[in-house]
Write a structure and sequence with these properties.
Layout: H1 2-25, E1 27-35, E2 38-41, E3 46-49, E4 52-53, H2 68-79, E5 83-87, E6 99-104, H3 111-117, E7 122-123, H4 133-145, E8 161-164, E9 169-172, H5 176-179, E10 186-189, H6 192-197, E11 201-202
Parallel strand pairs: 3-6, 9-11
Antiparallel strand pairs: 1-2, 1-5, 2-3, 4-7, 5-6, 8-9, 8-10
Helix pairs in contact: 3-4
The chain binds zinc ion.
């Protein structure tokens, strides 16, 4: 009988310590904030937020994009020196070796979504990391409707854009990458706004800096 009680207590203590170590492992300090979608943890790892793309800040003689600094500042105000929780999806790393993650604060808020909801980044879907795609797109639509950040003072001429339903990217009609889209994956938009609204992100080759039309004033 006593043996059973000891065994039971041992299991309880084991589960408690195991959970504690798991929890401790999942919380990290943010050492620095690079921009609106990238941070460095105190252990030196670079984290790229999943599902979003924020405008660039000034780096390597590249000029900052509109709202780049604002996005960085907003991100910094939320996570700098804070403990954050990381959640991963299927692909763990991007092509630069950065860890891909969803970032949560102690109050449970998802930073990736908050940045999009404020209009400081657009939704960038990429298979197979799709866990929060519908939430992120919902946040983007709210930001667009409220004309926040990159969506404020939006002006663009109507044009024709080719979307790829598979990759969820949209292109100028003349883009050679866009032309590789199979016929059954093609979808056409008459404005960038419409493409963004449907959750498509601009091709880096043919629309490298033009995702914020009001910057071309
Ligand atoms: Zn393109």
């Amino acid at each position: 009988m006593n043996r059973n009680i000891f065994f039971f207590l041992f299991i309880i203590v084991f589960i408690f310590l195991y959970n504690k170590s798991l929890c401790a492992e999942n919380w990290f300090n943010v050492k620095s904030v690079i921009d609106g979608d990238t941070i460095i943890l105190s252990d030196g790892r670079h984290i790229r937020y999943i599902g979003i793309n924020a405008p660039e800040v000034e780096h390597n003689e590249q000029k900052a994009q509109p709202y780049g600094e604002a996005a960085k500042q907003f991100n910094k105000n939320m996570v700098f020196s804070e403990k954050v929780h990381l959640e991963f999806d299927k692909d763990r790393f991007d092509q630069y070796g950065r860890l891909l993650a969803y970032i949560f604060l102690k109050d449970g808020s998802l930073i990736n979504a908050k940045i999009i909801a404020q209009g400081y980044a657009y939704f960038l879907g990429r298979s197979p990391n799709k866990k929060y795609d519908s939430l992120l797109l919902q946040c983007q639509r709210r930001a667009m409707s409220g004309h926040k950040g990159i969506w404020s003072r939006w002006r663009e001429k109507k044009d024709r854009y080719l979307g790829n339903q598979h990759s969820k990217r949209f292109h100028l009609i003349k883009c050679s990458y866009g032309r590789q889209t199979s016929k059954k994956s093609r979808i056409f938009f008459s404005s960038k706004w419409d493409a963004f609204w449907e959750g498509y992100a601009p091709c880096k080759k043919c629309l490298p800096e033009y995702f914020i039309p009001q910057s071309v004033e």
